[in-house]
Amino acid sequence: MAEKTHESKKTIPPYMKALSGSLGGVMEACCLQPIDVIKTRLQLDRSGSYKGIIHCGTTITRNEGVRALWKGLTPFATHLTLKYALRMGSNAVLQSAFKDSQTGNLSHHGRLLSGFGAGVLEALVIVTPFEVVKIRLQQQKGLSPELLKYKGPLHCARMIIREEGMLGLWAGAAPTVMRNGTNQAAMFTAKNAFDGLLWERHEGDGKLIQPWQSMISGFLAGTAGPVCTGPFDVVKTRLMAQSRSGGELKYKGMLHAIKTIYVEEGLLTLWKGLLPRLMRIPPGQAIMWAVADQITGFYERRYMKNASL
């Protein structure tokens, strides 16, 4: 009997987790792209041109038009769709591998390691090359194609490969791995904890929480990562933005960049863009989980519950 109970609480298949994450990513990208553009411009601003989030947004709109706030949307949406599919799917696979073979339970350490592994995988396979293209597009000012070096995502990728080699698309990979690994370890663990604490919902129990409940859990789970990984995000952006075709590089790597930024611009610069990250990531997680939980919750109730009868 106990064996049947264990079977009825099997986790959702990785492909369903991947599908739910990708659909949530599309919705997140469309809603929050302007915040990401502002965050990138603030992190790349060394001269103090922008006085804050609102000033940055209004300056971009006034000088470049409203459409400039959605610069890089195509690579951003594609990157989020693929990233969440890989993140959610690989996390499900890793969690299954870390579960106790006798009880089917997943320890806190197993959940953390699954999240970290999923973050590392998405950083290397998806996030780094897409963010390099996105950041190169976002740092360009103006909308006239003839005045821009990069005409679009594919042209940008081809130019980087031609001028800097294939590895140019993986500039800033080290801080991206550290940022994403830490973020996902914290996020998956916190989301599970908040679901149980606030809504008494546990994976496999067939309970479908409302979208607003998923949004609260996702929002809270998405707050810790940006604070902890701020320096990695700033360094990642700086490394990705610098072109290898322009001569000697200012930043030689992750540690050198951290040291250089600290010496030249001060400690707080390593958390530059934190507020727009907090304006983007927790709401982004709220939107993504609201979509993902509805899809996986429907699957649980429709298929897993029926299979256990």
How large a portion of the residues is in β-strands, by DSSP E?
under 5%
Distance between the termini: 13 Å
Main sheet record: none
Mean pLDDT: 86
User: What is the count of β-strands?
Assistant: 0
Instruction: Kindly provide the radius of gyration, computed on alpha-carbon positions and rounded to a whole number of angstroms.
Output: 21 Å
Query: What helical percentage do the residues reach?
Result: over 70%
Order of helices and strands: HHHHHHHHHHH
Structural class: mainly alpha
Instruction: Enumerate the spans where pLDDT stays under 50 for 5 or more consecutive residues.
Output: 1-8
Number of helices: 11
Descriptive tags:
309 residues; mainly alpha; 11 helices; 72% helix; 0% strand; globular; disordered N terminus
What topology emerges from the helices and strands here?
Elements: H1 2-8, H2 14-44, H3 53-64, H4 73-98, H5 108-138, H6 153-164, H7 173-199, H8 211-221, H9 224-241, H10 254-265, H11 274-308
Helix pairs in contact: 1-11, 2-3, 2-4, 2-11, 4-5, 5-6, 5-7, 7-8, 7-9, 8-11, 9-10
Explain how this protein is built.
- The chain has eleven helices and no strands.
- Helix 8 crosses helix 11.
- The longest helix is centred in the C-terminal third of the chain and has 35 residues.
- The N terminus is likely disordered.
- The protein is an all-alpha fold.
- The protein is 72% helix and 0% strand.
What's this, in brief?
The chain has helices at 2-8, 14-44, 53-64, 73-98, 108-138, 153-164, 173-199, 211-221, 224-241, 254-265, 274-308. The chain is mostly helical and 309 residues long.
